[in-house]
Amino acid sequence: MQSAAKQNYRIQLWISILSLLLFGAKIVAYHYTNSMAILTDALESIVNVIAGFIGLYSLYVAAKPRDTDHPYGHGKAEFLSAAAEGALITAAGIMIVYETVLNILEPNPVQRLDTGLWVVGITAVVNYVAGSMCLRIGRKNNSAALMASGKHLQIDTYSTIGIILGLVVVLVTGLYWLDKVIALLMSIFIIYNGYRIIRSSIAGIMDEADTELLKKFIRVLNNHRHPNWIDLHNLRVIKYGSLLHVDCHLTVPWYLNVHEAHREIDALVELTRQQFGDAIEFFVHTDGCLPFSCSICIKDDCPVRQHLFTERLEWTLTNVISNEKHRSGTMEQ
Q: Residues in domain Cation efflux protein transmembrane (predicted)?
């Protein structure tokens, strides 16, 4: 198991244990208060517990090395975990609506809200800190499962804060029916965020392009371009859990020998690993430059230049994902 994968697994293990403890605290708070809004928070915490252990298993699977059946590794398991977590969040929101409607039909009196508020307030702080840590490490290690857990914990925090503010209003005004309204509003918020997590995980499963990641990748290459990197096209970046898989075509001077061309690829790989970490693999196809490449070639000391340099072509999201070689003002296959 790689160091990043070990760190992801260890963090997710602590998150799973923490979710179990916080769920217990919220159930105690509901027992004291009989508040539907607090029950809403507790029901969402059930999802935290289940999703935490699903995420833990997915990180274990994703950390397995590639094999003959999975030549690109097992990283897609993280997206499946995130999809399951999003589905559970949505289901929790629907369950909250159901429980709230039942409580409206058969009302139970709210009591001891002050005690309950202190308990859920503490859980909100703990959740936010844990969620921030998950998001920070998840972004660093490109872990979809860890980022889904972090988002879920912060969603839980925001819903808890909303519940606390609403219940403070209930305490001040004595309008106890607002407890049900708060529960319904928070359930809509929970369902919406569950949908967003599902949407994001399906995008990963379907290899949908990560536009922001591609833009950052292109910006790094533009800012550190080597003279022998004449052109770049057919760029694709695919996520396999914490692993980034990069395909591209790199145009280099036609007279470079195999070893010299490979050194240019090594330099490109080293540059990107400095920016994006070691969990990245490259499949780079090298093309020899053609006469029309001279107009965009920034190499000053080219011994075989046939045409004048006219403009430096800035690589952009539009022109590097195209499977076409570039020249000044136009493109050619």
A: 16-205
